Structures are given as C-alpha cells and as structure tokens.
C-alpha cells in the first residue's frame, strides 16, 4: 500500500528530526578544546535572583533544563490521542543524558546524549552565541512573552508564560514553569488559528537536584558543504549546528534543521532513484507535525524534498517550493 509505506517513511524521518535536534542553549562563547572543554557551572543557578519578567523566566528555564537531574512521569495529549511517558535527565562527566519512554501504545524509547548546543554554525574564531540570554534576545524579536496567572502543576507551584508569535509564520505556546527551579512542567502548543493542538504535562516530578558541577558546551563548528540551500525561510529561522548524520540515515539523504529558538523545521533532500521507494507528493500529517513532499529536478537528477515541522502548512509549502540548487531554483516534477 503506497499510502502506508509513505506514512512509515515519514514517521522514520520525523524520528530522525527528533533525535538530531537539541534546542540550542549555553554560555557565552569562549575558546573550546577537547582537553579543556568549556563548561557552564550549574551551581551558580542557586545564587541567581528570582526572574522579574517573562523573558527572564524563559531564559532561566533553558538553564534549568540543562542543569537539573530529575525523573518524571508525563502525559502527551494531541490530535492523535493520549500517551503517557517516563522521563529522566542526568549528567555524567559534563554530558547530559535524556531518556523518554512511552508507557502505553506502541513501544517507543528515545535516548539522547549531548552537550549544551551553540546557536549558529561558526568557525573556531567566529562568535557563536550559545547563551540562553542570546536565545531569549532572539525569540523576543519574533514572539511576545507575557506573564499569566500562577497555577499548580504536578503538585508544584507554577509560573505561566504566554508566548504569542508576532506574525503568522509560527505557532504560539503557553508554558508553565516550576516556581522553584524554572523546569518546564507543562506546555500547550497553539496553532495559527488559536487552537491548542498539543498538551504536554508532567503529572509527577521527583524532587529535582541541581547538578553539582559543570555541563560541557559544544565546540564551534563550520557549516557542512552541501549542493542546495533553502531559498526562503521564515524570518528568524537559523541553520542549526547539530549533527544530523545519524545511523538511521541513508548516506544519500541530506538533512538540515532550522529554528528561531522556539519553533523548528527539518529539511530532507535525497535523490530519486529507480527501484527506490519515494513518497507521495503533497501535504501529510504526522500527529501534530506536518510534512510537505515535493519531487523536483536539479541540474542532472530528480530529487525528493521533505519539509517537516510544527508550523502553519503554508510556511512548509513555501520552504519546499523555494529550494535553491547549484545557484538556481529547482523545477517541480510531476509526482
């Protein structure tokens, strides 16, 4: 069944995007070396003053998510149903380890090891902002952040942040942060029509512990060379310096991730070869994520383009339709 094969293939691509992407957050840039890696000392969070504004709370939540060791249970509610999860986050030798395990439905297990990421690609001598303050300043240009009413989530006092996009190119959010640690306790994703399309909420949080040490910051890395680039992106979306060369990829699949610090899209490009499974062109839904598939002609080969993310459909379509290949826009083929 072509439809089922396409759904399975898109589900694989969606998983790859999730595994590859880590929201960039870190400390001010400095010279990095493997022998003496740059670290952020998590212990200093205990001495920081209480945030005064929504933007400061958001910044603090980025640090908290990297620096606290915890275990939790959560529920995810979306248009594709309700799932429960077990979550954990710990730090060993400055490296974070995150685990998410679904407790019902199909067995799904995600594990990710990583450092605090940089905000952009950069050569060793270039400035590559990695601080939550830098990310906060960036999203403040594209979203309006405000404080909501305090509530109680997972038996803990919570501070609510309302995050509203300043244009129609991205979704909004409501965040509930733990008043003590600033860890995210609940998130509602709000589409461009004002509808809540996903709720992710902790139902139980074991007392989190502030890591007594440092978390390693990622090295500065120059962007990889590739034969294509997006000819259009929503304002504020930046090419993310994350490793997308994961084992599940076919060697011929090129994958890049773009983000404004809050919203994210993934772009996959691969050749269409005889006997190779291809996706059906058009708009596809994967839970709350959407994917746009195009078959285009580059200079000498037909290519399959997939743009995926939790963004308005017209945004994904515009990205997919404006791929630039070797200095010229690719021409769309018949599916």
Describe what you observe in this structure:
By secondary structure, the chain is mainly β. It has 2 domains: 24-29 and 36-216, outer membrane lipoprotein receptor (LolB), chain A, CATH 2.50.20; 228-332, 2-Layer Sandwich (Phosphorylase Kinase, domain 1). Helices cover 15% and strands 40% of the residues. It contains 4 helices and 23 strands. The strands form 4 sheets. Strands 2, 3, 4, 5, 6, 7, 8, 9, 10, 11 and 12 form an 11-stranded antiparallel beta sheet that branches. β2 (68-78) and β3 (81-92) form a beta hairpin. α2 runs antiparallel to α3. The chain is globular and about 60 Å long.
Major pleated sheet: 11 strands, antiparallel
**Average of per-residue pLDDT values:** 84
Helix coverage percent of residues? 10-25%
CATH class of the largest domain: Mainly Beta
CATH fold call of the largest domain: outer membrane lipoprotein receptor (LolB), chain A
Question: What proportion of the residues form beta strands (DSSP E)?
Answer: 35-45%
* Class by SSE composition: mainly beta
Query: How many alpha or pi helices?
Result: 4
CATH 2nd-level architecture of the largest domain: Clam
Distance between the termini: 17 Å
Domain MucB/RseB C-terminal: 225-323
Subcellular location: Periplasm
Pfam family, one: MucB_RseB
InterPro entries: MucB/RseB_C, MucB/RseB_C_sf, MucB/RseB_N, MucB_RseB
């Amino acid at each position: 069944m072509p439809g089922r094969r396409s759904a399975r293939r898109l589900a694989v691509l969606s998983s790859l995007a999730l595994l590859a992407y880590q929201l960039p957050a870190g400390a001010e840039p400095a010279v990095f070396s493997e022998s003496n890696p740059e670290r952020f000392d998590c212990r200093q969070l205990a001495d920081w003053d209480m945030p005064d504004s929504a933007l400061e709370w958001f910044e603090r939540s980025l640090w908290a998510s990297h620096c606290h060791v915890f275990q939790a249970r959560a529920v995810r509610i979306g248009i594709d149903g309700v799932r429960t999860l077990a979550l954990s986050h710990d730090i060993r030798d400055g490296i974070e380890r995150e685990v998410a395990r679904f407790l019902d439905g199909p067995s799904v297990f995600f594990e990710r090891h990583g450092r605090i990421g940089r905000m952009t690609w950069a050569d060793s001598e270039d400035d590559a902002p990695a601080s939550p303050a830098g990310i906060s300043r960036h999203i403040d240009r594209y979203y309006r952040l405000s404080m909501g009413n305090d509530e109680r989530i997972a038996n803990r006092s919570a501070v609510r942040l309302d995050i509203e996009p300043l244009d129609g190119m991205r979704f909004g959010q409501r965040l509930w942060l733990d008043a003590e640690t600033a860890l995210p306790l609940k998130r509602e994703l709000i589409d461009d029509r004002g509808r809540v399309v996903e709720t992710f909420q902790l139902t139980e949080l074991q007392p989190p512990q502030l890591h007594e040490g440092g978390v390693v910051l990622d090295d500065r890395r120059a962007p990889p060379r590739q034969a294509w680039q997006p000819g259009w992106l929503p304002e504020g979306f930046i090419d993310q310096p994350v490793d997308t060369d994961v084992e599940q990829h076919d060697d011929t699949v090129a994958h890049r991730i773009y983000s404004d610090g809050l919203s994210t899209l993934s772009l996959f490009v691969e050749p269409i070869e005889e006997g190779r499974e291809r996706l059906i062109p058009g708009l596809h839904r994967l839970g709350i994520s959407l994917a746009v598939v195009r078959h285009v002609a580059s200079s000498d080969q037909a290519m399959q383009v997939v743009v995926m993310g939790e963004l308005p459909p017209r945004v994904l379509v515009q990205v997919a339709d404006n791929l630039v290949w070797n200095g010229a826009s690719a021409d769309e083929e018949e599916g």
